[in-house]
Design brief:
By secondary structure, this protein is mainly alpha-helical. Helix content is 72%, strand content 4%. The protein has a two-stranded antiparallel sheet. The protein is flat.
């Protein structure tokens, strides 16, 4: 199967957003490491079919690997409810219960992170803006969502331009940790100032175009949608509600059986 044959960019952005949220909610409600592992494998397979698969996987690794290492260290060695000791390491002990807890929490977090990274790397932001506005979402809420999706790529591009300008003026970035920290400090100040300045310009531009008005905004184009996608979103919402209801029922009445 060639990359792109299961491209999520062809779908309505509300469908991919609903799918990401549904995967996260259902996996959290299930709270079973085997189910989380199966869902994570499915997300990895789906990610590999996308055009920006490498970028999404790099971002997921940068977020998850330190988190998984911290989980393994904290709960694998210092789990207070651990009873089955697999290896004693002085004051610490590797317990079966701690490893299972770290595995369960790590897999669920992996599903959550990869699902929303997959959405953010495949969604077309203008189409998401149009789709949300067409369904009557508050303009300020839509702007916050869209800004969150575009902030990191815009910041990365701006950092690259700042670094290039500083290197053109003679800044030499060595391989040592001290040199990299100095370069990061020198780049952080112009980055923050430029982002603050740009936010002010955006606010003025939005106010000039009546963004804060209460009237419903119109769009020049419409985002393609289909009856199967409409039905799929409703089914996913029902599955989310059912998963949460089952989870709450088990928590309330499971111990009484």
């Amino acid at each position: 199967m060639s990359r792109g044959s299961l491209s999520l960019e062809r779908l309505n952005p509300l469908t991919t957003l609903t799918g990401a949220a549904a995967v996260a909610v259902i996996t959290t409600a299930a709270a079973q490491w085997a189910f989380s592992l199966a869902v994570l494998c499915g997300l990895l397979f789906l990610t590999l079919q996308q055009v920006r698969a490498a970028a999404a996987l790099r971002a997921a690794a940068a977020i998850l690997l330190p988190f998984w290492a911290a989980l393994l260290l904290l709960h694998g060695l210092f789990f207070p409810e651990g009873r089955t000791v697999l290896m004693a390491l002085g004051p610490a002990a590797v317990t079966r219960e701690g490893l299972l807890f770290a595995l369960d929490a790590g897999l669920r977090t992996g599903v959550f992170v990869l699902a929303f990274l997959l959405f953010s790397f495949t969604v077309r932001v203008p189409e998401l803006l149009t789709a949300l506005s067409a369904r009557g979402f508050p303009p300020r809420l839509v702007f916050v969502i869209v800004s969150a999706l575009t902030l990191l790529p815009a910041a990365a591009q701006r950092i690259a331009r700042i670094r290039a300008a500083q290197e053109a003026r003679g800044l030499v970035i060595g391989r040592s940790l001290a040199s990299r920290l100095l370069a990061a400090r020198l780049q952080a100040v112009p980055l923050v100032l430029s982002l603050v300045h740009e936010s002010g310009e955006r606010a003025q531009a939005l106010d000039a175009r009546g963004f804060s008005g209460r009237q419903r905004h119109s769009s020049l184009g419409a985002v393609p949608d289909s009856a199967p996608q409409w039905a799929a979103r409703r089914v996913l919402l029902v599955l989310c509600l059912a998963a949460v209801a089952v989870r709450v029922a088990l928590a309330l009445f499971g111990g009484r059986a």
